């Protein structure tokens, strides 16, 4: 029995392959119309979970509900779910039009209606002139759009996408990202994307689930996952992060100080009501939240550390610095190049100060 | 990627191909020999071809062989494709190991054994249920089908395992039931393999001597059986002509299909 | 659901049809061979004693097996067949390996043509190809004629009806069976591995022995077994090209059956041959299964 929270409900779903546990009792609610991403490295179980939603695997235990119907054991050809395969899986012996019409023919839709729907979807993905082409005459990006069109034309309740942008080059990837979002917005279909590319997940999704070894480590909006990670794993997985292990020294209103292992100066962070002195924590600071300068910072609430520029990289719009602290620890800092100048403001082996605001640092308990 | 070729390899290749084709060239050459002594050149002549086409025995045997080949190839392709599908797509099922073993054994079993075993089967069947009373067309066809099926299975199966599974999954995802998917997607895509299998089964049947000798009866003389009895008497010139005809037909057939598949 | 049952039904049919066919026409006959090998020959139709006589009791005899083991002719022939099959296999390997290697490393455009040329003779009647060799090897055949015409020899060499001719015929017929699996194995190999070995200091010959050969092992095994197993029971080639000392077991089986009309003896010859072959056949099946898994 579905307990009426999400459009898609995954309840205690596990998948075992012999002794190997691919998916370990996961729960998830996805709302109608969301563009939801499941993000994880290879082998984390995300593809298995996706295949269970599509019907190519049955859960060892647990249930999957779509729109209040238990689909856990339904075969793929009966589910209101369609999938866009990573390899696109375009039928090589059929034209673009026949490929797209295939699903509709299986539904026994009237011929005229098939024609008009196929036509409409071809326009949506901008392939109107390609109806009679054979798949081997299409480029990679075009084939992807055919795969998308073929799945969408059936107006499924849910569209599953398996690494949709993996095979595309950078420029095409950016273009397709926005196209996908537009299409989803227009049609209002719930999209579930499975990917290992965090940039992709961050840009596309309304919410992300970070998955590792069969379990979800955090579920939230891209901002939540990025700025408020709940664990080292999530913090480290998304983007780059600087981590300091330490023990809580004092908790004073909204600021807590942490005595860190690798620094001689205590670190200031945003306090949490649950914190007590003596707790073991990990302070996590994103590179872009750190200021770097030759002068010491003025605000006493900020954390300030001395260091030496070990390495630097110039990327045009920003510069990346690797800073060596006196204890030997390396910190990554990124700074936008706000001023136009022919000389570098900072150079190798410069002595500098890095600092960050207390609330820029996250405290991780695990 | 540059590929270095050692002289040894090239020599081996040249020798190997010469080894394969010199005998055939010699046969073709001597088919135009006017002399009755097959390998002593007596002048150019096409008379053996004429004699060949007037020889009723040869024509009857050829007709029988062709009929058998057509039937057994088709039957072998159907059964072999089924077996290939079962092995490549159906996962584990009861009796799979036995099935797999039975499928691939005819490939390597010496023909004298398969021939003997089938003949004994037919004889036993005859005493048990009265059929087959006359050994010939039907028994040879059965023998050839059993034998050729293994080849078709191997070809179809390897094509199936190389095929992208996600194509069939996509079809199912779009609403096709497994049986429909089989006909809509799988079979069209393995069609080349099935055709290759059919051609192979056809050739094997047309060419078979041992199996046919065992399971045939009076009146059921296939072309290879006829050729063999003639050869036993020695190298004769009209066989050269027959051989050349077959070589030419087969070669053109193979070359045409290769050229056609390149387009 | 109705359709699920229909799917399951058709699934069963697809498995059952070939299964039943092979069971009846492949497996059962072997049981029959076994049964008849335990009978006595007699002048009757069929020419052997029934397994159960009129009183209904089991009447089996191991006479034919005992005869097999006692008469030196059979044992010698078995051994000879094993020897000839082994030699033919080795010869096929020696010629086939460089050829397969050459084809695997050739330019992609040429490769298909080369493969085709290997397979083409296979499509041409086996019988006729052996016949072609008869024409070449005969006392007044092409080779002898050419040699005599060149003045190299005075009298024709005895080429035909010798072991040499049989080996020639066997290699000729079974070479494609060696080349194709070898090619498949070699083609799959990453050529960069050889370059890497040489970069690390291996000479081309060392790279071959250390890298290429071990990686081609599955192909070598498959090729050798695909030649060895059927060659043991070869009938046509030894008959047409071999002499009296090239007697092979396939011929013995055939003659016992058709010439001597001793069905039980022929059956026991077949049983013994089958027993000899069981080990290599199972080995081949395992090798193929492993290959299939690796490819999937």
Task: Give a written overview of the molecule.
The complex is a heterotrimer of chains A (366), B (263) and C (296). With 366 residues, chain A is an alpha+beta fold. Chain A has helices at residues 46-54, 96-106, 111-124, 140-152, 170-187, 198-204, 222-227, 232-237, and strands at residues 8-17, 20-30, 35-39, 61-66, 69-70, 81-84, 158-162, 190-195, 207-212, 215-220, 242-252, 255-260, 267-270, 280-285, 291-293, 303-314, 318-324, 330-336, 351-356, 362-364. Chain A has two domains: 8-236, P-loop containing nucleotide triphosphate hydrolases (Rossmann fold, 3-Layer(aba) Sandwich); 240-364, RNA polymerase II/Efflux pump adaptor protein, barrel-sandwich hybrid domain (OB fold (Dihydrolipoamide Acetyltransferase, E2P)). In chain A, 23% of the residues lie in helices and 34% in strands. In chain A, strands 6-7-8-3-9-10 form a six-stranded mixed β-sheet, sandwiched between helices. In chain A, β17 (318-324) and β18 (330-336) form a beta hairpin. In chain A, α2 packs across α3, α2 (96-106) packs parallel to α4 and α3 crosses α4 (140-152). Chain A is elongated and about 75 Å long. The two termini of chain A are 35 Å apart. The relative contact order of chain A is 0.11. Chain B has 263 residues and is an all-alpha fold. Chain B has a domain at 56-236: MetI-like fold (Orthogonal Bundle). In chain B, α3 packs parallel to α6 (137-162). The longest helix of chain B has 34 residues, at 56-89. By secondary structure, chain C is an all-alpha fold. Chain C has 13 helices and no strands. At the A-B interface, β6 and α2 of A face α7 and α8 of B.
